[in-house]
Amino acid sequence: MSILNSLILRGFKSFKKKTTIPFQKQGMTAIIGENGSGKSNIVDGLTFVMGQRSSKLRANKLSQLIYNGGENGTPADRARVTITLDNSDDRFSEVVNEVLENGENPDEITIGRKVTRNSSAYKFMGKNCKRSVIDDVLDEANMDPSRHHIVNQGKVTEIINMSSTNRRGIIDRLAGISEYDERKQQAIRDLRDVKEKLMTNRVILGERRSQLNRLEKERNAALDYKEKEEDLELVEKSIDHKKVKNKREELKKFQEKEERIKEKLSGLEERLEATDKKAEKKEKKLKELKEEREGDEEKELSKEVEQVKMDLVQKRGDIRSQEKELDNLRETVKELKKLKNQAKSKSSRKKRSVKALLDRGRGGIYGTIEGLMEVEPKYQVALETTIGGHLQDLVVDSRSTAIESVNYLKENNLGRARFLPLRSISGNRMSQASKKALKTQGVIDYAIELVNFDSKYQRAFQYVCRDTLIAKNLEAVEEAENVRVVTLDGDVLSRGGAVSGGTSKKKRGNSTNKRKEELQEKIETKEKRINRLEKKIEEGKQELENLKKKLEKKEKQLEDRTEMDKELKEKSEKLESELGELKKRQKDLYRKTERQKRKKDSVEKDIEGVKRDLKNLNEPEEDLDFLDKPLKELITEKRNLKRDLDRLQPVNMKAIDEYEDFKEQVEDLETKLKSLRKEKREVERLIGKIEEEKKEKFYSTMEELSEYFEEIFQKLFDGGSAHLELSREGDIESGLLIKANPPGKELIVLDSLSGGEKTLTAIAFIFALQEMNPAPVYVMDEIDAALDQRRSTKVADLLEEYSTDAQLILISHNEETAKHADQVFGVTMDNGQSEVLSIKLN
């Protein structure tokens, strides 16, 4: 079916006026004219609309396509070319609906192109459009100048003069080899990417495996550490369970003992009560007898004797109290002098020995007690007083480090220092007395609980703090015994009962001289108090002697003044004797009762201690599978496990999870590498497959083209043979040779033929290309220019054969060829303008 209806030119090259060239629905249209008449500009107009570049249109730039005025005319300001195409079969309906969007579908569509001096625009149905719309229309029409449907002037000569390599490029385009090459290049790029990824991932995998090996060792160490920790936890819970069990058994024994003591005590108290009642009656009777024997004077004298006795007892008590205070003051002065001496030597020790060892940087020396602790400001004075001379003690890891450091000080004459080896020292356990005192109101806590330090230094701080308690003031521990207590102000209650204190201590940071001055001031204050007490005690002793003499005097007066009645005296003596016996019995019963009470108190204290111990013990869950071993063996096992854990330090516990993460990463990388290797093999296979498909497609295309070529060659030459072959057999990158064997000649290549034979062979090759991709329209521009009349007739016969199935437009100046046309237009040139005339055929 025909498709090209007409071509309209205006201002295009030599066509100034609007020129319309209608084409037959079917058959061959010949456009003839002299050379230079502008007939080839009609072909240029067609290809101009199709988007051909200016270089293909015999112009350097698009603006040169505009009519230039001819010899004497006026130049046009623009060039316009329009092509009308048949749409009666709705072949362009999709493009029309997409562009126009008005629902109309005309029987004829137009495409065009306009160029001015400064712009270029494409037209669809008279409206500006994108180049892509023109391409869509041409695709639907199967019209493309690059597919050899339009043979421009000089194309035959170009085929003849073309190199064999460029000629092979025609087959490449026909076979779509570029698509294979693009696919192959993409595959090669993909292969390069895969290789780079392989190399990168191999390096990463190597690094990850190295890290995994390191993490595996750390993980194994961590798992070992974790296992020992779990073993230690079980041992500790087993120890707690054993202790709780033992304490419960001990509590049961004490409770049974308490019941026995209570029973015995109850019997003694009943007997004592009965004896007390008898003694009370006899004392009452004896008192009545004495009252009968004594008059008012004796009573007054007796009162005076009793008063003197009371004064004597009071004075003795005052003296004992003053003597006790004196002892405490002397103890306090002793401690203050000790603190002063410590303060005096502290700075020199720190400057020389401690500082030297710390600056030395030897491993295993952690620092001074003072440097390793942190204390809240409100507890600072109390804690410094508690630790006292141990503030500058050096905490070290082991006894060997301490011995080596001592030798270093000796060798360098740096003074002395005290060391606390963590593996050797041990702190005292909390005494029962301190535990009891801890419950007293006003006692804050154990000193060690108020110090902040790293848990690894626990033993050192237990050693220097021991079981010292921190209290708000001394009044809070007035009744405490056998404990050491330090108040927030720095006052001290010693275990022996000595009390030291006074003006509040200053916080650390004051100079050593200031500290010594404060201590000296306290010592002098205490010594003055001692002197005053000594004088007061002497005076009290003198008063005591005077009271003794006074008592002796009063007793003698009472004895001299008393004249007892014999009967009353005998009764009194008898009563006194009986009362004496009762007193002895009372005393014995009281002693036994008190002994039982002490036993009761003792066992109650034991019970309280056991209960307190039970309370302080961490009782583990009963459903645990505890180790059934002796307590001593469990404690040894605990110590060994702790030693093993210390030896395993430091442990990277994160390595357990990190190892699994890294292992997963390594496995992912190995999987990725496996996948990349597979991908590499697949890409390599793809490249080989593409190459095979490319060769197969090339050879099939060349074989098909060669068959068409030989068929058309034989028509043009009335026999003979011709075919296509590669310059290097099997190498599709080599050149394409056209070999022809005209009748009566040997088979030779194109270059060896005569001029007419070359042209006719090239025309056969062009028509073979068109057979590879048939089209509804063919345009031939002077392909017969170099042929004689006989060969022109052969070409015309062939063209006439083609025009039966397609529209064929022939540009020619050969009248013999034009005779075969169904429609002929003549082109003439007048004053630089081309005109088209319709020519009627006989």
Structure description:
This protein is α+β, with helices and mostly antiparallel strands and 842 residues long. The protein is built from 19 helices and 25 strands. The strands form six sheets. A six-stranded antiparallel beta sheet has the order 2-1-4-5-6-7, covered by helices on one side. It has a six-stranded mixed beta sheet with strand order 8-22-23-3-24-25. Strand 1 and strand 2 form a beta hairpin. Helix 6 packs antiparallel against helix 16. The model is unreliable at 344-349 and 505-511 (pLDDT under 50).
Write the layout of secondary structure elements.
Layout lengths: L3 E7 L8 E4 L4 E7 L6 H10 L28 E9 L6 H8 L7 E9 L3 E5 L2 E3 L1 H11 L8 E2 L3 H7 L2 H12 L1 H117 L2 H65 L4 E4 H4 L1 E2 L4 H8 L6 E3 L2 H13 L7 E3 L10 H7 L4 E4 L4 E2 L5 H8 L3 E3 L13 E3 L4 E2 L5 E2 L11 H50 L4 H51 L14 H18 L5 H64 L3 E6 L9 E6 L6 E2 L5 H18 L4 E5 L7 H14 L4 E6 L2 H4 L4 E8 L2 E7 L3
Parallel strand pairs: 3-23, 3-24, 8-22, 11-12, 15-16, 22-23
Antiparallel strand pairs: 1-2, 1-4, 4-5, 5-6, 6-7, 9-11, 10-14, 13-15, 16-17, 17-18, 19-20, 20-21, 24-25
